[in-house]
Amino acid sequence: RRAQPPTRWVEAPRRRRDAPRAQSLSFVPEGDAAPPRSALVVGAGPAGALAALYLSRLGWRVRVLDAMPGNERTNENAVVSRRGLAALRDAGVVLDPERDGATTLEGAVVHRRVPNTPNSAIGHATNQFKGSVVLPRGALVDAIARSIRSSDESVVSRENTSSAAVTFEYGKSLRFVDLDNRVAFFDDVSTQCSTNDVFVEVTYDVLVGADGAESVVRGTLEREGVLKCERNADGLFAKTFVLPPGFYHESETSRDGWHRRRHSWPSGLVDAFATPNADGSFDLTIVAPIGFWRSVRDASDAEALLQSYVPNAFDDIVDVTTDAYKSNAIEVLLNPNALHPNGVSTFCSRLTAFDGSVVLVGDAAHSAWPTLGQNTDATLETSAYLGAALERAMAFASGGVLGGKEDDGGDENNFDVKTALVTYFERGRAPAARAYVRLCETGFGSGDVGWKRRVENFFFFAKLFVVTCLHRLLPFLFDAPALSKMDDPSWGYDDVEDETRRESGTVFGVFFSLITLVVATRRFGLKKVVESLVTTGRALLTGDANGGEGVVIVVLGFVALVTAAFRFAEKRRARKRETRRGNATRRETRVA
């Protein structure tokens, strides 16, 4: 069981891994205050937009630049669970179902094949993902931008007016960062110039790298020796297309509400899942090894794929519109350009520069395999931690109250950004970010698509099964699996990881003890074993072994041996993790 309560993000004093929850209050200086500091955010995704929101509320002038043209923003679905919704709620961001196309999930549906019945599957409803919200990533950014416009009378300007506290500019691709002089150079890809001589020069006080898994900002920090980075690809590739509304035969009364559920078709290394859109259709993603996709050569192969792995997705096509969905799906399955890597995990030794001038958030800081559905939540939470760290430093400098203790006072305009980022943010978020990436890899292989992945998956899910059974049989003694706390914002990712390690020790001890009891019973008999256990229990409770000191010593020695064996295995695993090299790590890092 847990040795201590889970992380409480809103309480003080903090554990070493925690940061205060950022509030929606403003620390904008008044009167004859010094000019506001300037922040440059590279990347206009959810992480960059939320970071800009917090910075603007703290009195910073923020400039958000993104390489993607504004009219070409990705609108792939993002799933936001309780953890991400808590970060949005604390920032004052409201998701509008009508305007943002947000759908609140009522749960999930797992479709499993019917034995001895080809091309057929039966769906079973569960409460997984209940309460999570699905919406396009672009709509999520727009919702955060609305909060920026409505807070502190600041105005987001897409026309780049100087009066706005936050400006969003698209079509600006980061070329180079001069860390010493705090200047960033961008190629203006939005111009119709045939050369690359058109660039934008931007100075900053703090540079926020939110430019995704292939972050240029992170690459700059790597080349300058500020941090080390390990990257691992999961070896899987995905394609996404649209399913028609009501593909699950909504007319059946037992399936009411299925249009607001996440659907999945698990099948070993090939996984398919669908999330609902506002118009009733579904975005279906199929994830599989590269060899699987190479076997899809023509329309008949594509149709066979759909019948095998999504058997009830296009049943009983009765109109031209629905038939168009299937034709589009086959076209996507045959298009090699529609194939994209499923996931690349990123471990960074640091999330900030030593002088506090650069900070990484979102996938630039901790991209992960999408196995636990936490990618959007983690990016939003990291930006909230950034706002909390800066707010805490400003509150300390201005003589505010932190953790129930009044500070001595200070100058809110001259607060130490380095302390805010390097101390509060680095120590508060970096351990949790690395734990999050490790959790997404645990049980889902180590970048290998083969026997190793299958063995790891087997033991991982076997452990989950055992822990779940122990919890259901003895709920007063065993907790539910720690991974069930991933959506809970009161649990830090590092708390969840610590709990999973304790679960491994529990399962190890239970199985080792059962095997020992079986062997001892066969060797000495059940009566002798029970007498030995009773003697040991009496010795531990009353201190009286009643002549059975030798038995007590043997039993306690056995317990110590089991504990030592598990600790040795944990230390060996930790050393192996420290020395491993990512299979997708940058070439220059590997050479270095």
Topology of helices and strands:
Blueprint: E1 38-42, H1 46-57, E2 61-66, E3 77-80, H2 82-90, H3 97-100, E4 103-104, E5 107-113, E6 121-126, E7 133-136, H4 137-150, E8 156-157, E9 166-170, E10 172-178, E11 183-188, E12 199-203, E13 206-209, H5 216-223, E14 229-233, E15 236-243, E16 261-267, E17 270-276, E18 282-289, H6 290-294, H7 299-309, H8 320-334, E19 340-341, E20 344-348, E21 358-360, H9 363-366, H10 375-397, E22 401-402, E23 405-406, H11 417-441, H12 451-473, H13 493-524, H14 526-542, H15 549-579, H16 587-591
Parallel strand pairs: 1-2, 1-13, 2-9, 5-16, 8-9, 13-21
Antiparallel strand pairs: 3-7, 4-7, 5-6, 10-11, 11-12, 14-20, 15-18, 15-19, 16-17, 17-18, 22-23
Helix pairs in contact: 1-4, 1-10, 2-10, 10-11, 11-13, 13-14, 14-15
How is the biggest beta sheet arranged?
A: 7 strands, mixed
Helix content: 40-55%
Q: What is the terminal separation in angstroms? A: 43 Å
Cα radius of gyration in angstroms: 27 Å
Task: Let me know the average pLDDT.
Answer: 78
Number of strands: 23
Annotation field: number of helices: 16
Shape: globular
